[in-house]
Amino acid sequence: MRTPKKINLPGDPAKGKRPSVRWEVRLPQPDGKLKYKRFNTQKEAERAAAKQDELMDAVKNGTAPKVYNLTVNQLLDEYEKSRLGVSTKLRPSSVKGSQQAIAKLRPFFGAMKAASVQQKQVEEFREQTLADVKARQAAKLDALKRKLTKIAADKRGVRGRRKLAAIDADSDEIAARVARTGPRATNKALAFLRHVYKFAQARRYVAFNPTDGVEFLKAPTRMDRPLDTNVLTVEEAYALLSAVNPEYRAAIMVLMFGGLRLGELGGLTWGDLELDRDEPRLFVRQQREGVTGKITEPKSAAGRRFVDLLPEVVKELRQHKLRTQKASPEFVFPYHGRRFRDNEFFPALRRAKLRRIRLHDLRHTAASFMIASGVDIAAVSRQLGHADVSITLSVYTHAIKRRSESSVGAKMAAFLSAEKRGGFSVVMGEDDAMREVANAS
């Protein structure tokens, strides 16, 4: 129990107030804060401190009455009702992610008292979740192999034999991918649990957050993921364009050369296209939700941006406008994302005899083309709608590294030579830099 502190109040004779004595004590609150309260006598202060200490002990032991005694299941129910209900401002994808995290938390913590959960139990949840995710991914792979083996046994199972051969050929990469699986999903569940306990602290259900001090797992870096294998080369890009249905070629080109996200593509209107400018561009100001199909604003301020267009993309967009504007007077590409992917994109990959990649990998392809062509990284970041240049640097490290290894010494030598002769500092291409070095020598 905290010892009350004696406070001497001088009083104010002008107002008729006499000198007096008060006893001040610090009272800890369930939300972790401290409140200072004064009493007329020392005994009153000591009784208040003792009573508050009893409450705090009860909160920690899970024996406190009323709201202090609720279980984690009850806390999650209240969180769902308050934050994920009809009036939520979260996107459908965020609501879905929160519900998936809740499904992971309930089996482990459900019956525990929310106020009695300790850091050690959160760490045990972290390890168990990681093991469960890895086991689930391994089981999925085994089930797929069994299914394909069964299909391959049939004389007509050509596709099954082809997929099984592809899995066997990439067995090392697939095993490494399964080994990398888990940390990100586990960290998401931990972050959500921390958020739920902050919600509980705000409502004064718990005294402290048991996730404080719990270390998150080290997730694989972008360098560990085979991003390059999913990026198309220039030759493959044009092979895909030749194989895609002409009605959908403009959409593929905007994704592959403009770097838009699929939702941003679906939110484009004809008024967002500025094709008659000297430097044609389009304006990304909204997106179509993949889950509900609703039109919403971009996720961040950086998402609202102008995207420069190549001349060949402009030409294709003009043809697309003549072909489809009457059928779709508002939206340029009123496609359902999944049907567009399954019915148009994947078949085009097969017709072009290209490996199967994700539709989102066209965005990575666009970024790689921009970086390889020498576009400034900050400009690439703006074109892609990244909130920070560091995101661009981390995601596209491979492409940036390849570009930075070309003729750095030659370009620097050309710059220094021009400066020594009193010339002007100009930006030169690689061939110009090589010629400048030759002339200087």
Strand order of the largest sheet: 1-2-3
Largest sheet: 3 strands, antiparallel
* Annotated CATH topology of the largest domain: hpI Integrase, Chain A
Q: What's the CATH class of the largest domain, please?
A: Mainly Alpha
Structural class: mainly alpha
Strand content: 5-15%
Task: Please state the average pLDDT score.
Answer: 82
CATH superfamily of the largest domain: Intergrase catalytic core
Question: How many separate domains make up the residues?
Answer: 4
Number of helices: 18
Counted beta strands: 8
At CATH level 2, the architecture of the largest domain is: Orthogonal Bundle
Order of helices and strands: EEEHHHHHHHHHHEEEEEHHHHHHHH
Shape assignment: extended
Summarize the structure.
The chain contains 18 helices and eight strands.
